[in-house]
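ok posting inputs for the pyridoxal-5'-phosphate job
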Amino acid sequence: MRRRNPALQVSKRASLTPPSPIRKLVPLADRAKSQGAKIFYLNIGQPDIKSPPEFLKAVREFRHPVVAYENSQGNPLLREELVKYYKRNGISLKSKEIIVTTGGSEAILFALMAVCDPGDQCLIPEPCYANYMGFASMAGVTLVPIPTDPKNGFHLPDMHVWEKARTEKTRALVVVNPNNPTGTVYDKRELAMLDQFARSHKLFVISDETYREMVYDGAVHHSFLNFGSPSQHVILVDSLSKRYSLCGARIGCLVAHNKSVLESVTKFCQARLAAPTIEQEAAIAAVKSPKRDIEKIRSEFMKRRDTVISSLQNIPGVFVRKPEGAFYCVAKLPVNDAEAFSSWLLTDFRDRGQTLMLAPANGFYLTQNGGLDEVRIAYVLKSEDLKRSMTLLKTALADYPKKSTASL
Ligand SMILES: Cc1ncc(COP(=O)(O)O)c(C=O)c1O
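and the output
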């Protein structure tokens, strides 16, 4: 038998990269499913809204005899369509300022790598979208958490908190607006404060606007690119995944006015050759389509949000504030360890053969032991399924043998 070479080790970077809290419990869910359980998946932001028929038609009708590499910065026609999309949304761009990426995920990595060297720091409100931790680890960047408070809906703390967290190594701020996991939509005052902070200290702003259209109750989304001129410090990260319900298409983009940033990101793009050819071509049809009714999608998600929040607020010991955007909320549960509870839901709990899957929130915190009693809930299923999921959650919390000492 061949013995494993004891000296063969993966990098420290690899060992230190945290697993995704969104996918960590998948093996338990797979086992539960193979045992016949019906699982309501509230752990992942995968909406059940149908993908645009124009996109699917364009995929079916792709007729080129060779699926060739696209341009590294993206299909020129898609970039032109995106210019029109942003124009419709009040943002004026040239197509060379938009680089198509393999999902918004790749745009995050490229943005971090373009502005930070290994050992540099970025400030980010906590809790934060967990994949920033994975990407920061890949890029050798340290994320410095800016604490936010669930009691005021996770809105941003005052400038002095940001000033205190800034060091000589700080290169950028990361602002996810509307926010994943909290669903917070930052108002103009908060964004103006950050813009001023970034400008005065020559910091970049990585503005992740993946959920830019998912704002509720008449709230308005303000893009960082619209906060005065020049906006050389702003790098916008965007994605078609949620907006068009095209998560598997893996199409996103990075937008910047800054020439050096664009040139740097272009080199990263050349190294990875190209984003997917067929999906980019089909994405043109989706972005172009006049049929998409964003108001309808928005009101559907608002209905789902209201279903989840009112149910959660009726469960004893649960604390949650109504989120203003995206399709997530962070809820405090009456348990000491939300990961143990989320695992137990998959391993032990069944009600009429059904259970649910949640994302333990600790993985969205950089601070050790942050959010231990919290979960992130993605309200991406239809209201009827969400109602059932919330009933399951209520029953499970009542049955759970290890409730928090505070809730007893
Ligand atoms: C805030 C945020 N940014 C970026 C992404 C990445 O999206 P994708 O890579 O699917 O385009 C996500 C996905 O959930 C997200 O929530």
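notes: The chain has a mean pLDDT of 94. The chain has 13 helices and twelve strands.
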